[in-house]
């Protein structure tokens, strides 16, 4: 009877330690999932902000202003345009 009680006490202690360990791992996994979800939300917000920035940078008014101010480009005027005459290219690409 004494040995059986000792064996049952050891089994009970092992079960208790196993339960505590599994609860701890469960909490750790919950914390990891929560962190991953927070990071996903942050990345989604960054993605939306980058999409807005890209749309702003691609606006034609901004491109036009950058071309005029930064690159010192001017609009096309007929008196500064040079026209070149070129022989028409054959349909088959000119290969003979």
UniProtKB/TrEMBL annotation:
Subcellular location, principal: membrane
Any coiled-coil regions, as ranges: 26-53
GO cellular component, one term: plasma membrane
Compartments, record wording: Cell inner membrane; Cell membrane
Glycoprotein recorded as keyword: no
Sorted UniProt keywords: Cell cycle, Cell division, Cell inner membrane, Cell membrane, Coiled coil, Membrane, Transmembrane, Transmembrane helix
Membrane topology per record: Single-pass type II membrane protein
Protein's GO biological process: FtsZ-dependent cytokinesis
General function of this protein: Essential cell division protein. May link together the upstream cell division proteins, which are predominantly cytoplasmic, with the downstream cell division proteins, which are predominantly periplasmic.
NCBIfam families registered for this protein in UniProt: ftsL_broad
Alphabetized PANTHER family for the sequence: CELL DIVISION PROTEIN FTSL (PTHR37479:SF1)
Subunit field text: Part of a complex composed of FtsB, FtsL and FtsQ.
Membership in a protein family: Belongs to the FtsL family.
Protein name stated in the entry: Cell division protein FtsL
This protein's encoding gene: ftsL
């Amino acid at each position: 009877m004494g040995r059986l009680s000792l064996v049952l006490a050891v089994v009970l202690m092992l079960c208790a330690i196993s339960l505590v360990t599994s609860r701890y791992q469960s909490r750790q996994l919950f914390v990891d999932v929560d962190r991953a979800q927070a990071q996903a939300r942050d990345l989604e917000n960054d993605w939306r902000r980058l999409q807005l920035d890209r749309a702003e940078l691609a606006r034609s008014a901004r491109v036009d202003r950058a071309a005029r101010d930064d690159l010192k480009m001017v609009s096309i005027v007929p008196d500064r345009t040079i026209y070149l005459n070129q022989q028409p290219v054959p349909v088959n690409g000119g290969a003979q």
